[in-house]
């Protein structure tokens, strides 16, 4: 279970404080996969980063009773001066994963070759995404988090990512944000709408989509 308790998030803008999230309280239970709909700038990515722990809320608490992935493909937490292999070992130590097993998997799956031993700051955006996605598949999680897209890269790599992700999620749950209702229906069992800094959850995806379409119209 993941609990969001009265989450607030503000940023300092040129015209003053910007309120992105306003008192978000929600529970993501084991055994259900949740989709979140919202317009551009609604705070969906911010909410996911807070949920995964890659960003702190300005106020409120997050309680995680399960192993939660970072957003799939998210490479913002890599240390640019370290190589891909060094970042991998660091992640393994944090999550208690077997370094040799993870190294073998990521090296083969990511197809980065000798670039694994080059500093991440020299990687293209696509290369960083390959490393991040491969790492998230190598370390087993109870909840996988998806921000808009499942994976980056060419069509062949995306197909490979989708195949292994479907294998991994057979015993795990999903929390995702997306503009695509078809993608949410494919991966989720219920959905919510993030609007005006508030998250409202609905029992069915169709109900959430009806509300979302009224918001964007």
Task: Tell me about this structure.
The protein contains 7 helices and 9 strands; from the N terminus they run βββαββαααβαβαββα. It is α/β, with parallel strands linked by helices and 217 residues long. It has a domain of 117 residues: Rossmann fold (3-Layer(aba) Sandwich), CATH 3.40.50. The strands form 2 sheets. It has a 6-stranded mixed beta sheet, with helices on both faces. It has a 3-stranded antiparallel beta sheet with strand order 2-1-4, with helices on one face. α3 crosses α4. It starts with a strand and ends with a helix.
Regarding quaternary structure, how should these chains be classified? Answer: single chain
Distance between the termini: 34 Å
Secondary-structure-derived class: alpha/beta
Fold-level CATH name of the domain at 1-67 and 145-150 and 174-217: Rossmann fold
> So what's the overall shape?
globular
Instruction: Characterize the biggest β-sheet.
Output: 6 strands, mixed
Average pLDDT number: 89
Give, in spatial order, the strands making up the sheet with the most strands.
Answer: 5-6-7-3-8-9
> What is the level-2 CATH architecture name of the domain at 1-67 and 145-150 and 174-217?
3-Layer(aba) Sandwich
Low-confidence stretches are: none
**What is the share of helical residues?**
25-40%
Total number of helices = 7
Order of helices and strands: EEEHEEHHHEHEHEEH
Highest-level CATH class of the domain at 1-67 and 145-150 and 174-217: Alpha Beta
- The name of the CATH superfamily of the domain at 1-67 and 145-150 and 174-217 reads P-loop containing nucleotide triphosphate hydrolases
């Amino acid at each position: 279970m993941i609990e969001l308790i009265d989450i607030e998030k503000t940023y300092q803008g040129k015209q003053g404080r910007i309120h992105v999230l306003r008192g978000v309280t929600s529970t993501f239970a084991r055994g259900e996969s949740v989709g979140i709909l919202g317009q551009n700038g609604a705070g969906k990515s911010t909410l996911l980063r807070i949920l995964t722990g890659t960003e702190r809320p300005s106020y409120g608490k997050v309680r995680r009773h399960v192993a939660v992935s970072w957003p799939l493909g998210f490479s913002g937490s890599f240390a640019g001066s370290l190589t891909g292999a060094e970042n991998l070992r660091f992640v393994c130590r944090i999550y208690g994963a077997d370094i040799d097993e993870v190294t073998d998997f990521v090296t083969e799956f990511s197809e980065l070759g000798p670039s694994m031993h080059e500093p991440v700051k020299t990687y293209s955006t696509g290369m960083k995404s390959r490393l991040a996605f491969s790492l998230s598949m190598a370390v087993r999680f109870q909840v996988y988090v998806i921000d808009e897209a499942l994976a980056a890269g060419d069509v062949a790599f995306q197909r490979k990512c989708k195949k292994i992700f479907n294998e991994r999620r057979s015993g795990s749950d999903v929390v995702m944000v997306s503009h695509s209702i078809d993608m949410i229906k494919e991966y989720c069992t219920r959905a919510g709408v993030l609007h005006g800094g508030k998250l409202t959850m609905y029992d069915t995806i169709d109900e959430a989509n009806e509300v979302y379409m009224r918001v964007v119209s």
